[in-house]
Amino acid sequence: MPQNADNVLDHFNLFRQPEYKEMFENKKKNFENPVADDALEQAREWTKTEEYKEKNFAREALTVNPAKACQPLGAVFAAVGFESTIPFVHGSQGCVAYYRSHFSRHFKEPTSCVSSSMTEDAAVFGGLNNMIDGLANTYNMYKPKMIAVSTTCMAEVIGDDLNAFIKTSKEKGSVPAEFDVPFAHTPAFVGSHITGYDNVIKGVLEHFWDGKAGTAPKLDRTPNESINFLGGFDGYTVGNLREVKRIFASMGVDYTILGDNSDVWDTPTDGEFRMYDGGTKLDDVAAALNAKATISMQEYCTEKTLPYIASKGQEVVALNHPVGVAATDKFFMEISRLSGKPISEELTKERGRLVDAIADSSAHIHGKKFAIYGDPDLCYGLAAFLLELGAEPTHILATNGGKNWAEKVQALLDSSPFGKDCKVYPGKDLWHMRSLLFTEPVDYLIGNTYGKYLDRDTGTPLIRIGFPIFDRHHKHRYPVWGYQGSMNVLVWILDAIFEDIDRNTNVVAKSDYSFDIIR
Amino acid sequence: MSVAPAESIEDLKARNKELIQEVLKVYPEKTAKRRAKHLGNFEDGKPDCGVKSNIKSIPGVMTIRGCAYAGSKGVVWGPIKDMIHISHGPVGCGQYSWASRRNYYIGTTGVDTFGTMQFTSDFQEKDIVFGGDKKLAKIIDEIEELFPLNKGISIQSECPIGLIGDDIEAVSKAKSKEYEGKTIVPVRCEGFRGVSQSLGHHLANDAIRDWVFDKTEGKPARFESTPYDVAIIGDYNIGGDAWSSRILLEEMGLRVVAQWSGDGTIAELEATPKAKLNVLHCYRSMNYISRHMEEKYGIPWCEYNFFGPSKIEESLRKIASHFDDKIKEGAERVIAKYRPLMDAVIAKYRPRLEGKKVMLYVGGLRPRHVIGAYEDLGMEVVGTGYEFAHNDDYQRTTHYVKDGTLIYDDVTGYEFEKFVEKIQPDLVGSGIKEKYVFQKMGVPFRQMHSWDYSGPYHGYDGFAIFARDMDMAINAPVWKMAKAPWAA
């Protein structure tokens, strides 16, 4: 009997006990009709070959382990960033259960979001009644200040018209006529979660700036000195947005973060559940029209929003998830240029400290090869930082990256001798990455939790940066932007390198001459 | 909403009724009327729990339910480890259900085993416009080329498939023929079908009947039958549950010829009609196929409950009653063998848990099955409800709950929060979406879908972990820190 009360064995130890091992053997031998060991081994080795890689890259229809999610997830991410706003997803309800679970697993926080629970009858007759009843229920139960409506693939396939549906719902009294119900169509079969973010942010701005779907006059722009800030879809939104606020405050700049979801995904445990916390004030969203300029931290998350904002007469600046010295320099200089305020002494000192840290540590990173995957802007930002550290990015892969993105990353790589052996893979997935890691190995892999399968299969240590991170806790509380955030990224990379060195040098009387305590 | 402390059962029932009236007040009239049917007290002696179930969720409320795809791919088919399950449609559904249910298995992932992978047809706009059948056919070809050791393929339909009228059955048939009779199973589990994940379970069961059983009918078993052959039905091996169950069945002298579907294989599915008895853990998700095997192949089935020593003992004896004395003695031997462990576990944890009140809200069988395990530890379940139960689940629940237990079917986020706020249980057991809501409120919580990444909870080995986990949840020092010492 393996289990005991004094020392309760968890699943990882329990199932290693002889009783269980014997049981597994018998199950396999007698009932599973397993593949013969040699055939298995042969197939396994074959998946590591150049030949397999070629077949793998010849795939045209199948996607395996993609590094992207669907538009509606990004829609919910954006919607929760507004004051007392509940995201309302028009479509079948299972999707919302998935988005809520996905975010809760990453942030370890509740995620509030409702669905119009469309079923077969709505598929046939359209979901208008679901919208009418749904908005009324949401409004009465959750007492929001705004309901942000987006769609799932179901509602999009049957062609439900949100503008007309919301108008009809208001006429039927679901919510008061003046109540804010911005909307965005976010089909799951177009783009990815970053597209959903873009569509909802644009939808919310349009709602407030362009006459609230015909219920109010369009706003006229009276320019002021404030700066709008868009973070884009970002797994570090809690740490990053707080860091950005500190940065703006340090420079004394008047700013508005559009879609500030940093508080709703970081509420205290103090006996109260806050369904809404923080968020961009609705008045501030309207007033953001008057800002001098808008900075987007992630170009590929704001492809439609920025041109819309520009069309109102604001200057727009698109960055690519700035990490590291030069990218942060550029970010700060843009703030300074737009606001006319100097970069503060505090931030300048932080810059020096980051450079100091790089000087102290880059010897351990120099010349090391890295593979990176994730969202397009994140990949760009991390690649730029690796080049600064003297590392050699080798494979850069974004399932939701396009041709334009690939060209832009290539230009970055071409700007540095450390980027010369790197290839960019737009539209590829983590099964492609697996082939790359076998045929053209690298030293370290950077990406989200799903990369742990690649770490295991190919022996490439994974540094967890990206979204989602399910299997490590609280990374999202740390910024990865600004000099301070870059310091975090540097430390995470260094920790992985040192742990890897220790693992490779810890065999007594064999390799432990290099098991150093000073590094 | 002020509620007097409950003393007698009648007080308790009155309190619960008052609570229900309070939460209904927030809804528009039509909604309140509909929701009222799903909330109630259990009345001793009644044939069910007196609540309506398996009815559409109300739009715009925070239902905790999922969809048919989640029931088919996420629960029933996904854990079949040597098959490749295509999430057919846009990328999201497959991404969110990717390895999120901890269906443990042993195998070489990516080579002969595929459980923790995400295969999707990643529908784009052109697939919606022109249909996805050709793409699906091509996907199957590419799977055959890149994953030659797969033993079968299932096609798990997402919402658009049914809406645009793709003929996935025709593609499956044609490709099966092309690949020498390979098992290729189309499942019409589009998320808009039905009212919850429950219909997905049913559709998945039907697909096994039509595309696995009917296809392999008359084929000889791969093994020589014995009078003691049983199949474990409806255990998804979350955290290794089916393993800590299987070991008991084997110790009592039975031979488990198939495991459904945690750590399962297509060979085991095919072999199941040769079993002498199907032992069914999750009734909700797999009663359909068990009934089918009974009707068509004459295989009896019996429900069992492997949570906590009382129910395990009862279940071992119940299973043994279908066999001869050798097995009956085997059951007694197993019970006797583990009793010291159980006594030690209870001796250690019961004093720390005695009298603690629990509220549950889960799916499948757990809103009733785990009650016995809590009672073994001296704890009391004061409220329970199901995400996607039918009335037969609520009938079965009557054997577990006490008079005056608060019952909530398809509870909304709002209702659940209010109930917990007023009843102030010592522990809530529910899912990831609920976990942090209650922890913020300072209420200890365990995820009772995923065992909070712990487990197994089934069987004797699992009960030790269950008891330890409930203790760590309730008695964690953190809950005393929720209020700042200077806060009023």
Automatic annotation (TrEMBL), chain A:
Tetramer of two alpha and two beta chains. Forms complex with the iron protein (nitrogenase component 2). Residues 1-56 form the Nitrogenase molybdenum-iron protein beta chain N-terminal domain. The keyword ATP-binding applies. This is Nitrogenase molybdenum-iron protein beta chain. PANTHER family: LIGHT-INDEPENDENT PROTOCHLOROPHYLLIDE REDUCTASE SUBUNIT B. Its cofactor is [8Fe-7S] cluster. Residues 70-497 form the Nitrogenase/oxidoreductase component domain. Keywords: ATP-binding, Iron, Iron-sulfur, Metal-binding, Nitrogen fixation, Nucleotide-binding, Oxidoreductase. Belongs to the NifD/NifK/NifE/NifN family. It is an enzyme of class 1 (oxidoreductase). Binds 1 [8Fe-7S] cluster per heterodimer. It catalyses: N2 + 8 reduced [2Fe-2S]-[ferredoxin] + 16 ATP + 16 H2O = H2 + 8 oxidized [2Fe-2S]-[ferredoxin] + 2 NH4(+) + 16 ADP + 16 phosphate + 6 H(+). One of its GO terms (cellular component) is molybdenum-iron nitrogenase complex. This molybdenum-iron protein is part of the nitrogenase complex that catalyzes the key enzymatic reactions in nitrogen fixation. GO terms for molecular function: ATP binding; iron-sulfur cluster binding; metal ion binding; nitrogenase activity. Pfam families: DUF3364, Oxidored_nitro. The keyword ATP-binding applies. Its EC number is 1.18.6.1. NCBIfam families: nifK.
TrEMBL record, chain B:
Its EC number is 1.18.6.1. Pfam families: Oxidored_nitro. Keywords: ATP-binding, Iron, Iron-sulfur, Metal-binding, Molybdenum, Nitrogen fixation, Nucleotide-binding, Oxidoreductase. GO terms for molecular function: ATP binding; iron-sulfur cluster binding; metal ion binding; nitrogenase activity. Its cofactor is [8Fe-7S] cluster; [7Fe-Mo-9S-C-homocitryl] cluster. Residues 67-474 form the Nitrogenase/oxidoreductase component domain. The keyword Cytoplasm does not apply. It catalyses: N2 + 8 reduced [2Fe-2S]-[ferredoxin] + 16 ATP + 16 H2O = H2 + 8 oxidized [2Fe-2S]-[ferredoxin] + 2 NH4(+) + 16 ADP + 16 phosphate + 6 H(+). GO terms for cellular component: molybdenum-iron nitrogenase complex. This molybdenum-iron protein is part of the nitrogenase complex that catalyzes the key enzymatic reactions in nitrogen fixation. Tetramer of two alpha and two beta chains. Forms complex with the iron protein (nitrogenase component 2). This is Nitrogenase protein alpha chain. It comes from Methylocystis echinoides. The lineage of its organism: Bacteria, Pseudomonadati, Pseudomonadota, Alphaproteobacteria, Hyphomicrobiales. The gene is nifD.
